[in-house]
Design a protein that fits this description.
The chain is an alpha/beta fold. Helix content is 38%, strand content 18%. It has seven helices and eight strands; from the N terminus they run ββαβαβααβααβββα. A four-stranded parallel beta sheet has the order 3-4-5-6, sandwiched between helices. A two-stranded antiparallel ribbon has the order 1-2. Strands 7-8 form a two-stranded antiparallel sheet. A hairpin with a 5-residue loop joins β1 and β2. α5 packs across α6. The protein is globular.
C-alpha cells in the first residue's frame, strides 16, 4: 500500500520554468526580432510555501519531500531547508523522474539565466557548493550525493523508469547523443549507482518501462524490482530502514 496514505499533503505549483531553483527575471531573444520575458522566481515561490508549512506544521512526526520531473529537482534543493528546520523529525527525500542527465552547456546557460546559485543550501560543504564550471552532465548526481553526505541522519531516494520517455526526450534536445533513450538509460544508471555506492543513506529504484512521474499514481506501488516492491522501497526510504 501507499506508505504516505492519510498524511497531510502540501503541494507546490510550478509555473516558473526554472525547476523551482530560480531567482531572476530573464528576457529571451525569440530569434525573430521579439523577446519573451520569463519570471524565473521558483526560489521565492517555494520559500513562501515553506513559511506557510512551518506555521501549519510546527512539529510534525515525519516529513517526506517529494516531486516528479521539475518537482523532483525542487525537492532535492529544498529538502535540506526542511531538514534543518525540523532537526528532531524524520525527514526524507524521494525524487521521481529527476536524474539530471543534462548537457553541460544547457546547464551552464540555464542556471546562469535563472540565478540558481541563490537556492543552493548552505549546508553543502564549500568544496561541494557548485560554481559555474561545475555545471556538467553529472551535476545533479553530485548535488544529491553531496546532500546525502552532508546530512547523514536523513534518507534520500531516487526513482525512475529505465527508459523514461520525457527525460530521454530532453537528452535528445540537449544533443547529448543520437540514441537518446539508450544514452539516457546508460548515463542514469551510472549516476544512480555512483551515488548509491558512495552514500549509505541513499537508495535507488529503477523500474522497467518508459513512464514519467510514476510516484504520483497508484500503479507504481505494485511494481517490483529484484523482489522488492516500490511501496516497500519507498517505505524503507521514509522510515530509514
Amino acid at each position: 500500500g501507499n506508505p504516505v496514505k492519510g498524511w497531510t499533503h502540501i503541494f507546490v505549483p510550478y509555473c516558473t520554468r526554472d525547476i523551482h531553483w530560480g531567482s531572476e527575471t530573464h528576457e529571451y531573444d525569440n530569434g525573430d526580432g521579439t523577446t519573451n520575458k520569463v519570471y524565473h522566481q521558483g526560489f521565492a515561490n517555494v520559500q513562501s510555501v515553506l513559511k506557510f508549512m512551518y506555521r501549519l506544521l510546527p512539529n510534525p512526526n515525519s516529513v517526506l519531500v517529494t516531486g516528479c520531473s521539475a518537482g523532483g529537482y525542487g525537492a532535492m534543493m529544498y529538502a535540506p531547508y526542511i531538514m534543518a528546520k525540523y532537526p528532531d523529525t524524520e525527514v526524507s527525500l524521494i525524487a521521481d523522474s529527476s536524474f539530471g542527465v543534462i548537457g553541460t552547456q544547457w546547464a551552464r546557460d540555464g542556471f546562469r539565466n535563472w540565478n540558481a546559485e541563490c537556492a543552493f543550501p548552505t549546508i553543502l560543504a564549500p568544496e561541494i557548493r557548485p560554481r559555474p564550471e561545475d555545471y556538467t552532465w553529472d551535476f545533479v548526481a553530485t548535488l544529491m550525493g553531496g546532500l546525502a553526505d552532508a546530512i547523514p541522519r536523513n534518507h534520500f531516494g531516487m526513482y525512475s523508469t529505465l527508459h523514461d520517455s520525457v527525460q530521454a526526450y530532453f537528452v535528445s534536445l540537449m544533443g547529448i547523443g543520437p540514441k537518446s533513450t539508450e544514452e539516457f538509460a546508460e548515463r542514469m544508471m551510472k549516476l544512480g549507482t555512483r551515488v548509491q555506492n558512495e552514500n549509505h543513506n541513499f537508495r535507488l529504484f529503477i523500474d522497467a518501462g518508459t513512464e514519467h512521474c510514476s510516484f504520483a499514481g497508484s500503479e507504481a506501488f505494485g511494481r517490483t524490482v529484484d523482489g522488492v516492491s516500490f511501496a516497500d522501497w519507498a517505505a524503507s526510504v521514509i522510515d530509514g530502514d
